[in-house]
User: What shape does this take?
Amino acid sequence: MLHGNITRRLFLGALGCLGALGLARPARALAKFDELRSPDPLVSNLATIFTHKDSAAVIGQEYLRSVPEEADAPLLVDMICSSLPKRRADLVGADLEELRELLRHQQRHDFEYGRTVKVNDWILSETEVRLCALAALL
Amino acid sequence: MLIDARSLPKDKVIETEVCIVGAGAAGIALAREFVGQEFRVCLLESGSLGFEEDTQALYKGENIGLPYFPLHRCRLRFFGGSTNHWDGWCRPLDAIDFETRDWIPHSGWPFSKSHLGPFYERAQSICQLGPFTYDVKFWENPKKSPRLPFKDGRVITKIYQRSPPTKFGEVYRNEIIHADNISTYLYTNVVDIETNNTAQTVTRVRTATLEGNKFWVLAKLFILATGGIENARLLLLSNKVQSTGLGNQNDLVGRFFMEHPAMFSGVFLPSDPHLPLGLYHMVQGKRTIGALTLAEGVLRREKMVNISATLIPVTRLGYYYKTSSRGVTSFRHNLRATRQGGAPDDFWKHLRNVLVDTDDVATAIHGKTLNPNFLAIRLYNHIETTPNPKSRVTLSDERDRLGQNRARLDWRLSAIDKRSMRRAHEIIGQELGRAGLGRLKVELGEDDTTWPSSLKGLSHHMGTTRMHVDPNKGVVDENCKVHGISNLFIAGSSVFPTSGPNTPTLTIVALAVRLADHVKKLVS
Assistant: This one.
């Protein structure tokens, strides 16, 4: 696992420390995202891939609480795209369904090779939690 | 012949060829095999034909280990024994359960599963089970109730069959009491196993009724079949010649107590709410059930004990929270307390939303046919446990109504058990995701020593008179004969050197049938 497990203890600890810190971090990241929104349409494509974006954002927030260094939209997009079989330039032009299929395939690939993360004790693929994190940053 | 021992004259001596102590699954299976033989059999049962509180109270004991049922509530002391309250789920042990595995201390049976195969087949019929096959292909309906389509076979489905459940005391009562060569004595408590002065031969057993009657049974050959706790207790109590207890020259009697730890261990959230899971559903009247397990290769590679997980649908979120661990409850309280701070609300509901978004079928039907009552499936886990000499049955200082020391149970588990369970869930979680079936939450904590509050046993008492060819490592030999004693045998799960994760009754009966064959040769 790239980032190790997010333990219940860490999770509960993070809950206990919520307050200003927990809210401030996504706010800072949101500002960062706004700065970068226009130059890269792939960012918004990836971030809006979920029908239930709010739900994805909840999962993403949880992930980012434990891995705050990834609360950076361009970084997340880079990490997601680096594992996809298409070049980033080709992904920009991909329609939403094609993108979904690529990501779905990548999620299963993550599980196959043990690239998983525990978020709130759920075993999730790295790709999906990063997509959720991206949704959280929007 | 059925005899009420309370009516026997005082100090009567009964002579027979074979004396079986205990009329539970093992004792009755043995007695049935002896019907019509040329030798006499005496079957001694502590209770009567039905439950009686006074007799049952003889099972009371102390518990000083992991939380466990009161010892007089997890077994039954009357004709038929614990088959009077069992669920009936059966499956032979898996082949790997018989092997000596270098990562599991004290593991290994003196023979392989294939040796026990013909006896399992006979036991299958005695337990009134279906065809003797546990091949998933035979039982699944590929269209209506297929097995879960995992890739590469790391996670596989195994089948349990369900006995009606056979209450041995009812189903086989007439066969036994009408047998000319079998005398069944009710209300008969064995209180001492007497030997010659070198403790190499059992000469007789001393018995008592709760009303004060005492009598003796002399036999050529004795078989203890009183259950996984009581077999050890009886040997430890019989300490007149061998002061540490009969057969206990190497301090092994009572040690290696094993039980199947069972608990809710995870939640599986299907990406398709209509995922067909009929093969795995435990519903009344169903004679088979599928459970998840890991392939042998995975167990070897990961150095794990064997596991088995059944799937239980959760139809309401409230049920999930109410029945979940204290950890989840505190998590819920934390959620409430910190909601203002932006904590997640119903995390798994959000996860479900995300999952259905990313699933082909579910995306197509989402918002139209998604069943709001079908939310998740809980994993109910039972695992093999590592044989642990510190997990043991000893004698308590408290005494029962017959003046006998009660049993004291110190049930312990090992770090490898917990690690195996957690790792198994990680693998199952990965494979569920890989196959696009859904996501798994692991509810086992992060350390190897603490257990979820939902931890229970399954009333499977095993290992306390373990089988090994070496007298330094086992209480009985490969024929279930107590090492060092020429005519004392033990039947039942107390002889299991390892438990496997599967229910024990079919193996108990298979071993009893095997022992019966051996005894027939010896006596004739």
